[in-house]
Write a structure and sequence with these properties.
Order of helices and strands: HHHHHEEHHH
Number of strands: 2
Shape: elongated
Structural class: mainly alpha
Largest sheet: 2 strands, antiparallel
Bound molecules: protoporphyrin IX containing FE
CATH architecture: Up-down Bundle
């Protein structure tokens, strides 16, 4: 019995460690991507210039993309496996006490927000990455504005903008639990640290959601209120 108990604990700790490392990579990507997206506030030249600069280093870009796909896949496979295992295992069979993040809304909706983000990334790539950057969707006042025009026209559609804002709230909610779990994995084990990690994670999640959502909100305000 004690062998099975310690092997359960060991495999769970290993999963959480790999998950935490992949999580750090994904949070890093989200912050860098957010910073890049903020160039939209500089106008078409600044935003398109940033995108063209990125695409000017194809090898580096592809190495980063492959790394991102690998950690995203790792994250999805491990979390889904753990979720299925947790559903099938009655935790009380093992007298093992592992500290977990407090069970708020973010924790309870983790699998739902995770699945929604997974679907969102597919739609998002079709929207922007694989879009025709010189086509009809890039036109503003009859002139192609490249990727800037594609993003602008995308968010000038209130349904699409609302979809993005809703999904950015899911990203924030997902992060609010993920960051708290990360802190616990890396040692926040006493009550006080767990509480501090939980509040910090909620603030961080909210800030990321607000910062990303500011882009579709900005386009809507410019188009319908100031345009
Ligand atoms: C308002 C929110 C967002 C905006 C305006 C936005 C904008 C963009 C744009 C314009 C691109 C194409 C870049 C290019 O081709 O040069 C892109 C690519 C991408 N975005 Fe977003 N994004 C947003 C949120 C997110 C979120 C929350 C995620 C992740 C959950 C994400 C993941 C990606 C990925 C994986 C790519 C492909 C990167 C690549 O081609 O190397 N985006 N995004």
């Amino acid at each position: 019995m004690s062998v099975s108990r310690s092997s359960v604990l060991r495999s769970s700790v290993l999963h959480e460690l790999v998950l935490a490392l992949a999580g750090i990579g994904l949070v890093g990507f989200l912050l860098v991507h957010l910073a890049g997206n903020f160039f939209i506030y500089g106008g078409p030249e600044v935003f398109n210039g940033y995108s063209e600069k990125l695409h000017g280093f194809p090898v580096t870009l592809w190495v980063a993309r492959i790394g991102l796909i690998a950690i995203f896949a790792l994250h999805v496979v491990i979390t889904t496996t753990m979720w299925i295992k947790n559903r099938n295992t009655r935790a009380q069979r093992y007298a093992v006490t592992v500290r977990r993040a407090p069970k708020g809304l973010g924790t309870r909706t983790m699998i739902i927000t995770g699945a929604l983000i997974f679907v969102f990334v597919g739609i998002h790539l079709l929207d922007f990455t694989f879009a025709d950057k010189e086509g009809l969707n890039s036109l503003l006042n009859g002139e192609s504005q490249g990727l800037y025009g594609v993003v602008w026209n995308g968010f000038a559609n209130p349904v699409r903008a609302a979809f993005y804002i809703l999904l950015m709230c899911c990203v924030g909610l997902h992060l609010s639990h993920a960051i708290s779990s990360l802190c616990i994995t890396f040692g926040a084990q006493n009550e006080r640290f767990v509480a501090i990690a939980d509040v910090t994670a909620k603030i961080f999640g909210a800030l990321v959601a607000i910062a990303y959502s500011s882009i579709p909100v900005y386009v809507l305000v410019q188009t319908y209120l100031l345009g």
